[in-house]
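Long-time lurker, first post. I've been practising inverse folding by hand and with some scripts of my own, and I keep getting stuck on stretches where the structure tokens seem ambiguous. Below is the full token string for one chain I'm working on. Before anyone asks, I'm not after the true native sequence, just a reasonable design that respects the backbone. If someone could post their per-position residues I'd love to compare against what I wrote down in my notebook.
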């Protein structure tokens, strides 16, 4: 029975897994991502790591159906190239597929990292195999992947940029050049930015305000921890976060009517509290027949969504 390799390429590490055709993870490992010199060592490092592991486990290229990879940046799934992955220092076009196939002798498939995480959650996680799932990842940015009627939606190339839905036309400037994108208020950095702004106007008693005024490090986790302690300022911050995310989710659901919207990424560690908070605003804004069927769920695979989804690219393409 041939196996699959999944790779989840990120700005700090590249994660690898060897999986069965049924998506069971057999081995996992990771290597640091070397972004020096315009990231020119990243692909050679990946090839070397795969070949080293295959030697270690006594496997050859013949044992594999293929390699799948999720990458940041703008991915051309047909040519297998990546450009504009700024956290990898990939500013010029990278012929990833060509290089990895030449270096490993194994067929290679690639897609955007958020799309790949969506495939992972659909195959083995919260999506439960449904053909209609939207995945939102809340990390340093906000990413998304859309599976509609069984297929990953690419549009003309960049579909699923959920982080750039406008939720506040009077809001913060976004790195993309627009204003009031979801990413500016619902990412880990966005939540902290909202906290700092609200803290300036807040006059009452609040530990969160004290931490900010005292110059201590404040993260999204700090904010959610203070909510648990009943901090009134932290309550205001997360309420605003819920309203923006609930609005974005309702817009997505009104257009696509998915079976579920799955929320993952670092910020989702806030758990069921987060789902309940978002659902309140989702129910307020969503079209009635849609809100009764579209479920909001927490992602289940954590850090494994990327490698599992990447491996499923092989299945989708080879079979």
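-- Answer (accepted) --
I ran through it position by position. Result:
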């Amino acid at each position: 029975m041939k196996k699959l390799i999944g790779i989840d390429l990120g700005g700090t590490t590249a994660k690898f897994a060897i999986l069965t055709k049924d998506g069971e993870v057999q081995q996992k490992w990771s290597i640091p991502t070397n972004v020096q010199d315009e990231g020119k060592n990243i692909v050679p490092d990946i090839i070397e790591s795969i070949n080293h592991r295959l030697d270690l486990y006594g496997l050859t290229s013949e044992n594999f159906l293929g390699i799948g990879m999720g990458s940041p940046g703008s991915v051309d799934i047909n040519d297998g190239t990546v450009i504009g992955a700024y956290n990898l220092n990939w500013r010029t076009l990278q012929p990833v597929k060509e290089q990895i196939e030449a270096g490993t002798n194994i067929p290679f498939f690639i897609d955007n990292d958020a799309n790949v995480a969506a495939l992972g959650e659909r195959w083995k996680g919260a999506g439960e195999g449904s053909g209609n799932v939207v995945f939102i990842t809340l990390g340093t940015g906000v990413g998304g992947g859309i599976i509609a009627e069984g297929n990953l939606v690419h549009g003309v190339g960049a579909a699923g940029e959920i982080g750039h839905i406008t939720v506040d036309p009077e809001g913060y400037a976004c790195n993309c050049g627009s204003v009031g994108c979801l990413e500016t208020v619902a990412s880990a950095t966005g939540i902290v930015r909202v906290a700092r702004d609200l803290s300036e106007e807040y006059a009452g008693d609040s530990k969160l305000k004290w931490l900010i005024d005292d110059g201590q490090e404040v993260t999204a986790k700090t904010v959610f921890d203070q909510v648990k302690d009943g901090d009134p300022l932290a309550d205001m911050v997360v309420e605003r976060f819920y309203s923006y995310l609930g609005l974005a989710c309702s817009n997505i659901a009104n257009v696509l009517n998915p079976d579920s919207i799955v929320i993952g990424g670092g910020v989702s560690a806030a758990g069921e509290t987060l789902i309940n908070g978002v659902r309140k605003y989702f129910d307020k804004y969503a079209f009635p027949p849609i809100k009764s069927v579209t479920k909001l769920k927490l992602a289940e695979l954590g850090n494994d969504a990327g490698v599992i989804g990447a491996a499923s690219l092989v299945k989708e393409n080879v079979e």
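A couple of notes from the structure itself: Residues 3-120+304-318 form a domain with the Nucleotidyltransferase; domain 5 fold (CATH 3.30.420.40). The two ends are 14 Å apart (CA to CA). Happy to go over any region you disagree with.
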